[in-house]
Amino acid sequence: MKPKALITGVTGQDGAYLSEFLLKKGYEVHGIKRRASSFNTDRIDHLYQDPHESNVNFHLHYGDLTDSTNLIRIIQEVKPDEIYNLAAQSHVQVSFETPEYTANSDALGTLRLLEAIRITGLTEKVKFYQASTSELYGKVQEIPQTEKTPFYPRSPYAAAKIYAYWITVNYREAYNMFACNGILFNHESPLRGETFVTRKITRAASRIKLGLQNKLYLGNLNAKRDWGFAGDYVEAMWLMLQQQTPEDYVIATGEMYSVRDFVSATFKEVGIELEWTGVDTGEKGINKENGQILVEVDPRYFRPTEVELLLGDPTKARTKLGWKPKVGFPELVRMMVEADMEEAEKDLLISKEGYKTKRYFE
Ligand code: NDP
Ligand code: GDR
C-alpha cells in the first residue's frame, strides 16, 4: 500500500513543490483546492493525472479551511497517513486589510483540521505538519532565531499563525498526536507569488531589461530576510514527519540579506549595475550606465508594523533531521531571474504581435 498524503494549499508555491516531492517518493497525493472563478492550478498542472485512467496517484478535492464539514468529509474519505497544512492567506501586508479572514483561515482553519482528525478517529494514525513561520518572531528578541526564541508577532497574519502554532502544540500534548510545527523562514522560487518581494523584483528586472516596464516601486528596502529555496524546504517538512517523535524545527539558511541587496543582485543578473542614492522614501536605484531611475520607494508598500530582520539558526534541523539547504542566495536569484526572463521574452513576443500581456496588481 502506498502511503497517502493530504495537502491543504496544494495550488500554492509550497503545495506544488511538496506534491512533486511526495509523488517521486511513491506517495498517493491528495490536495485540497479552492473553487475559483478562473483556473488556479497553474503550479500543479504538470502533475495532473486524468482521473478516468487507472493508477492515478494525484487527486484534487474541492475544499476550504473555513468549512469544517468539508474537511471532515475529505479526511474521512481519504484517511491519509500524513497531513500537510499549507493553506493560508499568506500575504503579510494583505493581512492588515483582511485581518478577520486571515484569522479565520490561518488560525481557526488549523483548529478545524485538527478537530477533523479527532472527529474521524484518526488521531493515532495521522501525522500532522503545520506551516509555521519566522513571522512569529516579529519584533526581534534575539539574533539568530532558534526554536527557543520568544515570539512577538507584528501583523494579523503572524497573530493568526501564533494561534495555529500553539494549537498544534496543544493537540500534540493533549491527544498525543504526531503534530509538528515547521518554523520556516522565507523561501522563494520561480513559483513564488508575484506580489512577494523577491518575485516582484525578479519579474520587474526582467521586464525592465526587455523594455516592457520602466520602473520598479518598492517599500522598505532595509528589511532583512533569510531567503532559501522552496524546493529545499519541502524536504524538511517531510523529514519532520519521518522522525520517532514529533517536534518543532526552524528551517532556514543562516544567511541574511536586505531587500536592497536582493534588488542589486537581481539587476546585476540581468546585466544592469545599480547605484543607490538618497535616503528613506527618497531612495532610488539608478542605472550606473545611463543614469536612468529604475527603482523607487513608494510608501504605499510600507507596513503599519514591520518585521525588520529575520535570521534563522537551522542547527537543530541539521543535527536531528540531517537537513541542509542546497541552493544558496546567488543560485536562488539566478534561478528566479532565468524563469522570469523566459516569461518576459514570451510577453515581448506577444506584445510585438500587437496583443496585450497579462497585468498584475499589488
Ligand atoms: P501561497 O500563498 O503560495 O499558497 C497558499 C495556498 O493556500 C494556496 O493554495 C491557496 O489557494 C491556499 N488557501 C488560501 N486560503 C485558503 C483557504 N481558506 N482554504 C483553502 N486553501 C486556502 O503560500 P506558500 O506556498 O508560499 O506557503 C505555504 C504555507 O507556508 C502558508 O501557510 C504560508 O503562510 C506558510 N509559510 C510560507 C513561507 C514562505 O516563505 N513561502 C514561510 C513560512 C511559512 P489559492 O491558490 O486558491 O489562493
Ligand atoms: P514576508 O514576505 O512579509 O517576509 O512574508 P514579503 O516578500 O512580502 O516581504 C519581505 C520584506 O520585503 C519588504 N518589502 C516589500 N514586500 C512586498 N511584498 N512588496 C514590496 O513592494 C516590498 N518592498 C519592501 C517587506 O516590507 C518585508 O519586510 C513571507 C510570506 O511568505 C509569509 O507567508 C511567510 O510566513 C514569511 O515570508 C516567512
From TrEMBL:
InterPro entries: GDP_Man_deHydtase, NAD(P)-bd_dom, NAD(P)-bd_dom_sf. CDD domains: GDP_MD_SDR_e. Residues 6-336 form the NAD(P)-binding domain. It comes from the Bacteria. The keyword Ribosomal protein does not apply. It catalyses: GDP-alpha-D-mannose = GDP-4-dehydro-alpha-D-rhamnose + H2O. GO terms for biological process: 'de novo' GDP-L-fucose biosynthetic process. The gene is gmd. GO terms for molecular function: GDP-mannose 4,6-dehydratase activity; NADP+ binding. This is GDP-mannose 4,6-dehydratase.
